[in-house]
Structures are given as structure tokens and as C-alpha cells.
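User: Let's play a game. I give you a shape written as C-alpha cells, and you guess the letters that built it. Ready? Here's round one.
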């Protein structure tokens, strides 16, 4: 009954490489956008917020 031998040092290095690559991919998605893409996203967010605010009902405070 013999199992596969695993070199823990190599296993840790492989895991670290996978983790670093996953982080790099996430950073590429988050920070790798052009200025035009960032501007477009900001404009779309502003438009959506403005549209949402237009439908908001305002309460008038009760004054006595």
C-alpha cells in the first residue's frame, strides 16, 4: 500500500504561482482599462443614478 510521494516544497511553489496568477488576472480586470472605458463606465453610472433620482418621492417635513 504505497501512495504517491509529494514534495511539499514544490507543491507550495505551484500553489503560490497559481495564487499570484489569479491575483494578476484580477488586477488586469480591475486596473487594465483605458481612460475611455473608465469614462464610459462613469457616464453610465451617473446616468443610472440620475434616472433613479428622478423617480424618487420626496417627503415634506411636517411643520407645526
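Assistant: Ready! My guess for every position:
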Amino acid at each position: 500500500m504505497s501512495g504517491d510521494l509529494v514534495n511539499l516544497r514544490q507543491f507550495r511553489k505551484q500553489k503560490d504561482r497559481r495564487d499570484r496568477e489569479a491575483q494578476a488576472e484580477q488586477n488586469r480586470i480591475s486596473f487594465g482599462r483605458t481612460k475611455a472605458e473608465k469614462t464610459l463606465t462613469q457616464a453610465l453610472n451617473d446616468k443610472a443614478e440620475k434616472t433613479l433620482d428622478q423617480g424618487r418621492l420626496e417627503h415634506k417635513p411636517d411643520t407645526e
